[in-house]
Write a structure and sequence with these properties.
Layout: H1 6-14, H2 23-31, E1 36-39, H3 46-56, E2 60-64, H4 68-80, E3 85-88, H5 94-105, E4 111-114, H6 122-129, E5 133-138, H7 159-164, E6 170-174, H8 179-188, E7 195-198, E8 206-212, H9 216-226, E9 231-235, H10 239-251, E10 256-259, H11 265-276, E11 282-285, E12 298-303, H12 310-317, E13 327-333, H13 335-346, H14 351-368, H15 374-381, H16 395-398, E14 400-405, H17 407-419, H18 426-433, H19 439-443, H20 460-472, E15 476-478, E16 486-488, H21 490-498, E17 503-508, H22 528-545, H23 549-552, H24 555-564, H25 569-572, H26 580-601, H27 615-620, H28 625-634, H29 639-646, H30 650-662, H31 676-689, H32 694-701, H33 707-724
Parallel strand pairs: 1-6, 1-7, 2-4, 2-5, 3-4, 5-6, 8-13, 9-11, 9-12, 10-11, 12-13
Antiparallel strand pairs: 14-17, 15-16
Helix pairs in contact: 1-3, 2-3, 13-14, 17-18, 18-20, 22-24, 22-26, 28-30, 29-30, 30-33, 31-32, 31-33
The structure holds adenosine-5'-diphosphate and zinc ion.
Zinc ion binds at residues 373-375, 390-391, 393-394, 396-397.
Length: 737
Amino acid sequence: MQTPDIHDLLKTRFGYDEFRPLQAEIIRTVLAGRDALVLMPTGGGKSLCYQLPALCLDGLTLVVSPLIALMKDQVDALRANGVAAAFVNSTVPPGEAREILADARAGRVKILYIAPERLAVPGFRDFLGSVDLSQIAIDEAHCISEWGHDFRPDYRNLHVLRQRFPETPVMALTATATTQVRDDIVGQLAIPRARQFVASFDRQNLTYHVRIKRGAFEALLDLLRRHADGSAIVYCLSRQNAEDLAADLTDEGIRALPYHAGLDPAVRRTTQEQFIRDEVTVVTATIAFGMGIDKPDVRLIVHYNLPKTLEGYYQETGRAGRDGLPSTCVLFYGASDRHALTGFIEQIQDETERARARHKLQRMVNYSQLQTCRRAYLLDYFGEAYDQASCGGCDICLGEREEFDATEIAQKILSAVIRTGERFGADHVIQVLRGGRGRRLREAGHDRLSVHGIARDQGRIELHDIVSLLEDAGLVGRSADRYRSLAVTPNGRDFLRRREPLTLSRVKPPEDDASQPPPGLDRLDFDRGLFDHLRDLRWRLAQARNVPPYVIFGDQSLQEMAHYLPQSRASFSNISGVGRVKLNEFADEFLRVIRDYAEPRGLAERPKTPARTRPDRAIRRRGSTYRQTLDLLHSGLSISEVSRRRELTEGTIMSHLERLIAAGETLPLERELPPPERLSRIEQAFADAGSWNLAPVRERLGDDFSYEELRLVRAWLDQQGRMKGEGADGNARQPPA
Ligand code: ADP
Ligand code: ZN
């Protein structure tokens, strides 16, 4: 077998420019015939790790997956890229299944998806006896482990595959990463020598927000309206909540469907289908929703009720933004939800179970009350260190820190802790401060204390926040047992005695939780209007083919189209997601929509350099031609000096500059610019021409101006525009007005 260029395959077959982290290494490992264990978060791009090698290998790739509902979508997506894929599961009639297996045996299928139950079917065992298997992929591999949250007894049959095909590389994939589960997978599948790949569980494109649950329905409406152009899932605590919320939203003009385990399977299936096909954009759901869907473009996940555990929370929020585009996660935190959950937990019979559930809920509550980076807390919970000071992608890091004088309130809180005997948790102490008259409080005689009701004017949540701040400041501590009783530390006593002033800082969350990707993440300034037209077209094509819209093109591809405005098949093929098959199938229709939109508005194409020569990759390579030019320019040489030194034409150096700028470098171009009046004439000419193309601008200006000069000014304007964030209004490529 000759070694295929996996980068070429990535572009020609899948349409993508670059591998995501670890993908290339994993693919090389299988191609070298080795077993692999792949741990990646949802959206990390696991499927490609076996799909791409499948195209390089001679025989069949068998994919075992428990998620029957997903198989069809995965297969549709592969077929849209011209990959011969098929599935057999319980939804496929026996006759048809036999035909598919015959096709697979004859080499007419490259990737075959099966459910684990299939391994126990005698006919399927016969099939295995006669087929050339070159790769075995086990998706959702944690299902093999009883330690996992989703044990499937059928997964224990998988060792059959190992015995039958001892030489065939096995790839096990999962998004569940505890070491226990990991060891179990390796042991159960008998792949002790598997190379292990562990990706970061940091979902960089997700922004995390927590909101105090007050006027929550209004806030939810507002949130959904602002995210109206993308899909959203709203997670609720109970079936009834999900039903009621869907009805209330619909009353307000936001069409939402409920989804929970109590609904008729047929209803659930249609809801799922409608959601995947963008026929309904909001689903209110219990946690039951999401397992069976793989929609890459969910833009907003709302937790309307507090989840029970951070594991659950991470998994549910993980369903946002699988395609890597910025997406938002908002959690509404309210003490009543917390009490409801505590109530459930106290009903758990088994003592250890109950203690564990309590502990997990406490971590969830801590997360909701953080005054420090939420991403760092989440990652720490999963055992991953996050060493950046600010993630730039959570409400804490995005919010403004505000200082406030906490002297008086701190004195009140500390006094109340002392007066109640340092035996009570924050809830109780806060009730006392706010003048509560609950039974427990009265029985303890705390309604007669001098501190009773001295902080009536403060909200409960604010007081909780301040207690946490006092804890951070080392003035109070909490007991390690489950009562989490507050006690005043020696520092706290000093503070009370000396009557010192105290300033604390808390975070004022950002007003807007619109998806803001953390810095460093690509975000295109694409044309919204065109994007909507392209979405319409995508939707129509998907309907006609009876597939979900994302199978035609993902949002990333549409955004690129609405940014680069490709006008030819050649430039269309540079768009991410456009492989050979989709180029042939869809280029004409999309190009027509782009042209019809761009022409009357005078929008010109914006060049996108083909992936293989993309400077951002090339620049990183030390000694690359771009890098040499860059270094010389930064060392103070002019363009013509660089050209002489490097023995390259000035035109070539100019093209380096353009690529460097496109890759985000900032170059010292000021010294090369023409004198001010000349510069402003050129600037004006670009604006008048309404185009970045040089010819029409030169025509306006006359022979007195050289192409080289115009080209330089264009590069400079491009750099300026980027620095000023111009084009944020959507008209990215419009020349300066
Ligand atoms: P996972 O199974 O890890 O949750 P998927 O395999 O479903 O993730 O991939 C998530 C999304 O990312 C899919 O829409 C997929 O097409 C896309 N994707 C995967 N690899 C790449 C890549 N190298 N470049 C761009 N998009 C990719
Ligand atoms: Zn943060």
